[in-house]
Each structure stands twice: as C-alpha cells, then as structure tokens.
Input
Amino acid sequence: MANSNKPAIRQKTGGVCVQTAFSNSTAASSVADNNTWANTGISCSITPLYKNSEIKLTLHGGLAAGIVSAEIFLRIDRSGVTLTVNDSSGTPVNAWSNVLGNSAQVGGLHLYADSSHNTTSSITYTIYAYSPTASANSVYVNREATDSNASSSGRYATSLMLEEWVYV
Output
C-alpha cells in the first residue's frame, strides 16, 4: 500500500555534475524568528551553464533552538522566490527538526533539488528558519543557545554547497 505522505522517488541515470559553488560561514549569530520565517544569513550563488539542469543543495552546519526539544524548520528561497514552504496540508516542510535546545545540531542535509530554474543567469539560494515552538522564538546559527563565548561553548561552521547536474 502506498504512503500518500511520501513524495514519489525519481531515479535518474546518466547525470554528470558540471559545476559546484560553495559558501562557508563561521559567524555565530541568533535570529529572532518571532513565529515567522527569518533569514539565517546562509546563502550561496551559482550561474547555471544549462537552463534544463538540476541544482542540488546540501547544507552542513549547526543550528540550535532556544529550548530543549524545540523544532526548527528550514525553507529555501531562490533569488527571492520561496521554493519550499508548506506540505499539502499547510504545515511547514520539516527539513531539520527536534533540535536540542542548548546544543547545536550538526550534520549534513540534502535539502532540495531544483529542476525548474530555467535560466543561465546567476541564482542565489538563501536558507530561512522558523521555530513553531512558541517559547523558542530564536534560532541560533553556528553556536549553542547558551553560548557565553567561553571555551566550553561549542562553535560551528555552516556551509551551503550547490551542484549543477545535467542528465542525458
């Protein structure tokens, strides 16, 4: 029986990565989301070589919420146009969740494959965050929520990698 909550899996063959772009940030910051989408300051630009290519986005880094077990959702904007906001029921797409409140969640996450850009002009992808937990109200980038700028506080680097793929 098919699960209607899962997207269809596309398998492509014969693809080749024709270029990559990369941005890296070690700046520690906090973003007050106030129950709305907030710009994390994480972005990267690429100029596609082909209009019909697919741009794959991979995020590595650390994000934290202000309280234990709060969730953080991520959204991607392509040059100011939102690519992922809600699922079919209107719930924010859960790209990163169950983040421990006083610790940053570190790891890699394949966020999105954009096959509808249809341009060879420069594109900027920007990551936005939102915490639906009412008492969280802040998302912390590259730092723990309780960071006191001491050696005991963890700091992280966040990177966004873009790959342009062409399929035969």
